[in-house]
Automatic annotation (TrEMBL):
It comes from Amycolatopsis silviterrae. This is Acg family FMN-binding oxidoreductase. Residues 239-303 form the Nitroreductase domain. InterPro entries: Nitroreductase, Nitroreductase-like, Nitroreductase/BluB. SUPFAM superfamilies: FMN-dependent nitroreductase-like.
């Protein structure tokens, strides 16, 4: 006999949620999350054992990634005709809990974004020259009061600072070792079994900003050339009022929602956080650009000229956490 309450999530619904979460972007494609379904509630659990001491020494990007996964989880629950509320425990490994109950069909904009989840990929290439229409509408996707999306009017300062960061990362041997560890060889003789990491084919060999992740061989354009490249792209800096765990999650949610909206509009994009982890970089950037808060991520988007390669994912079964120690009943 089935004793579950009618509001409980059925296995097929859980699979839909897990698929959506699995497709979220994450730092180095590390997928630092698990799901724990309890009746009609879903915990998004942060996998704090995933550490990137060189790229993400403070674990900020791990929480931003969980935020991106949370955006997908919320959209998927709504697509399943569930009304949702989200709570954010202040301690422990549960980043957020989405409480669901049977409800109405989602708003059209949310359904459109949900459907874009499977098509979104990191596009680390130059864009077509066609400009992005209605950037203001993209900026409007940010709903979180503590998150501010800022489109810089001029890119000279950004070019100068990104150029500097690129040169630092290129010659940082420990950083490069860590990046190599997180490079997924998705074809060729090392291809077997890659379930995480950034695929080799996704790096490309273009200079910044398209390079996204700087490797030893990444060409560094001079500041003038870099400024020209940046000026040809639509750039959005995601800032938050402070550096709390909640701020990082909110920034991740907002970033992913904008990325999905862009995808739904036929645009492509990628995220840069790498330079923001250099000591003092964010504070300096905030001051020089007059940013409305602390920068957490830079989103670049435009019209794609080709398809971006897919990246691997952990099997869905590994996403669904069971028997986590210390979980409340
Ligand atoms: C918080 C966060 C930080 C990221 N930082 C970078 C970055 O600095 N450079 C970059 O090229 N991609 C960055 N990415 C993109 C990830 O590498 C990408 O999402 C992951 O490899 C999965 O690939 P996909 O986006 O194509 O699904 C970041 C993504 C997130 C969520």
């Amino acid at each position: 006999m089935d004793n579950s309450a009618p509001a409980d999530l059925a296995p097929a619904e859980t699979a839909t949620l897990a698929r959506a979460v699995s497709r979220a972007p994450s730092v180095h494609n590390s997928q630092p999350w698990r799901l724990c379904v309890r009746g009609s509630d879903v915990d998004l659990v942060e996998r704090t054992e995933i550490v990137l001491p060189r790229h993400d020494p403070e674990g900020r990007d791990r929480l931003l990634s969980c935020g991106a996964a949370l955006a997908n989880l919320q959209l998927a629950a709504q697509a399943l005709r569930r009304d949702i509320t989200t709570s954010f425990p202040s301690h422990g490994d549960v980043a957020a809990t989405v409480h669901t109950r049977p409800g109405a069909a989602p708003a059209r904009a949310d359904l459109v974004r949900y459907r874009a989840i499977g098509r979104r990929r990191s596009y680390r290439r130059e864009f077509a020259s066609e400009p992005v229409d209605d950037v203001a509408q993209l900026l409007d996707t940010v709903e979180e009061p503590s998150v501010h999306a800022f489109a810089p009017a001029s890119v000279g300062v950004l070019a100068e600072m990104l150029g500097f960061a690129t040169r630092v990362f290129r010659s940082d041997a420990a950083y490069q070792r860590e990046l190599e560890t997180w490079t997924a060889h998705t074809f060729g003789r090392y291809a077997l079994g890659a379930v995480d990491g950034v695929p080799e084919a996704s790096f490309g060999d273009e200079p910044l900003p398209a390079a996204g992740l700087v490797r030893r061989t990444t060409p560094v354009p001079d500041d003038v050339r870099l400024a020209e490249r940046l000026a040809a792209e639509t750039l959005v800096v995601f800032c938050t009022d402070d550096d709390t765990r909640r701020a990082h999650l909110d920034a991740g949610v907002a970033l992913q929602r904008m990325w999905l909206e862009a995808t739904a509009r036929g645009l492509a994009g990628s995220v840069l956080t790498q330079p923001l982890h250099l000591t003092g970089f964010r504070e300096h950037l905030a001051e020089r650009l007059g940013l409305p808060g602390l920068p957490q991520a830079i989103f670049r988007c435009g019209h794609p000229v080709s398809a971006a390669p897919p990246s691997p994912r952990l099997p869905l079964g590994e996403l669904l956490a069971h028997d986590l120690p210390g979980r409340p009943e």
